[in-house]
Amino acid sequence: MKIRRLFQPVDAALLFAVLIWGTNISVTKTALAEISPLAFNAVRFAIAPALLLVLTRLIDGDIAVPRQVWPLLALTGVLGHFGHQMFFVLGIARTTATNTALLLAITPIFVGLIGVASGSERLRRSNWLGILLSFAGIFLVIGMQAPGLQVGQQTLLGDLLGLGCALLWALYIILSKDLVQRTSALKATAWTMTCAAPLVILAGVPELRAQDWHAVSMGSWLGLCFSTVVSLALSYALWNTGVGKVGSARVAVYSYLTPLVTVGFSALFYGEVMRPLQALGALAVLIGVAMGRQDGSG
């Protein structure tokens, strides 16, 4: 019974979403070698919102939301989709896949800090100890030089964009909790993405025109399809379902697993290898996550 209470179907859905996102970083990095970042994102957001609206209509029965929810929908969409995705594709194009994954893993820390500051989360001593331990683990992983992992001026801009991406994703998680409770997971996902789509597409128009689509290989087309349908549409819907059922703090903890998935796939795609001290850092992150999950108030 205890195991069933700790691990429910929603946890499996969240783990699946994390697995997809961890894979997507390497898939996107490969596709961006042939497709410009803003064009890549524009195509994704031209397709994913429509897919989600159709899915919402089929499952929820309608796509309507209360009028008073629209301002929050628009704000969440701009921050969590337009801002977050712009920072993601521009950042990963200027740094390594491993750097990006590790910076995105800071998201739960941002969620905790913002939650405490806004009064929406209450963290116990064990939570703060877990956060500090996770910080130490991330420092170990990032601080060790390894193939594919770089710390310096060459990747500084991409790393800063990755850090900004993590902050915007934290804001999206916190705001989505209220949206999901007032509408539904699918409606919140579909409409926030729809609100952001015009901005994403408009930002990508110059690169869409300049992109040589005939030179894009089948592998990159498949990567674009995976990133659009599976990583953007399906995973966001699964994630917001988790936010609605178990709360932002507990859901955010799963973000720490993304870099472990990414490092594994980066080893396959790019030969990036985690050194012993980096592995120790990853273990520290996992222990910190366990501490936060055990006593957290999500």
Concise account of the structure shown:
With 298 residues, the protein is mainly α.
Describe this structure in words.
The chain is 80% helix and 0% strand. It is mostly helical and 298 residues long. The protein has one domain. The model has no long low-confidence stretch (mean pLDDT 82).
Overview features:
298 residues; mainly alpha; 13 helices; 80% helix
Number of helices: 13
Task: Please identify the oligomeric state.
Answer: single chain
For the record, give the distance between the C-alpha atoms at the N and C termini, rounded to a whole number: 21 Å
Strand fraction = under 5%
Largest sheet: none
Number of strands: 0
Order of helices and strands: HHHHHHHHHHHHH
Derived structural class:
mainly alpha
List the helices and strands and how they pair.
Elements: H1 2-6, H2 9-31, H3 37-60, H4 70-92, H5 97-104, H6 107-118, H7 125-143, H8 153-182, H9 185-210, H10 218-246, H11 248-253, H12 258-270, H13 276-295
Helix pairs in contact: 2-10, 2-12, 3-4, 3-9, 3-10, 4-8, 4-9, 5-8, 5-12, 6-8, 7-13, 8-9, 8-10, 9-10
